[in-house]
Amino acid sequence: MKQVLILLFAFWIASCTNDEIPREKAYQRFYFPKKEYKNFTSNCNFSFELPTYCYIENKDSLFQEQLRSDSCWINVVFPSWNGKLHLSYKYYDNPDLLTKLLEDSYKLTSKHMVKASYIKDSIIDLPEIKGLVYSVGGNSASEKQFVLTDYKNQFVRGALYFNSTPNFDSMQPILEFVDKDIYHLIETFKFRSKP
Fold first, then answer.
1. What angle do CA 98, 149, 130 make, to 5 degrees?
2. For 82-122, what is each residue's pLDDT tens digit?
3. How many whole angstroms separate alpha carbon 188 and alpha carbon 185?
4. CB 105 within 8 Å of CB 97
5. pTM of the model
6. For 163-193, how does the pLDDT look when each residue is reduced to its tens digit (9 = 90+)?
7. Contact (CB, 8 A) for 185 and 56
8. 132 pLDDT band (50/70/90 cuts)?
């Protein structure tokens, strides 16, 4: 019995060496699907080309309140990265309301300055669509936001969020990949005439 205890003690002492090799810090490697798109027509009175690796969540209520008939909301879901592009549609009937919608969108984007290192805006000037794209740098909750309008009576706001702790370094490959999808969505975006 004494020999067994001595043998166990020897194994225990031998296992206590500190020969561990520290590993370098690294981020997860991502494998991205091939870029392919399909036409999507929303009940929200607009259409665009949707990536084939995404799906749509329709929203008929917001915070347990039914949406008004002049409003609509859908989410473009990126399931592989636990992300959503929130698209909210609004019909407006006077220019003052468009000004208010643009101001509200800017205020919502500006709230990210707490964590952001910068906000850069780019103008969208397509034949039937005008708007702005906001690129938010740093560890903000939403890296990409945009507004689109036909300057007649229809308005859409988009905001990209991921359900994870903001860390620009680890999210950068995903953000670059999804960025191209957002610009493709904007380039193929079309408002339908309001019935």
1. 120
2. 999 999 999 998 888 988 998 888 888 877 666 777 788 89
3. 5
4. no
5. 0.77
6. 877 676 778 888 899 999 999 999 999 998 7
7. no
8. very high
Pair 104, 128: CB distance under 8 Å:
no
Given this structure, which CATH class describes domain 36-191? alpha beta
Token pair for 79: 């399931």
Q: Side chain identity at 182, as an amino acid letter?
A: I
Q: Own/partner pairs for 123-130, CB < 8 Å, 24+ apart?
A: 124/148, 124/186, 126/186, 126/187, 128/190, 128/191, 129/186, 129/189, 129/190, 129/191
Distance in angstroms (rounded) separating the CA atoms of residues 90 and 193:
13
- How many residues belong to the chain? 195
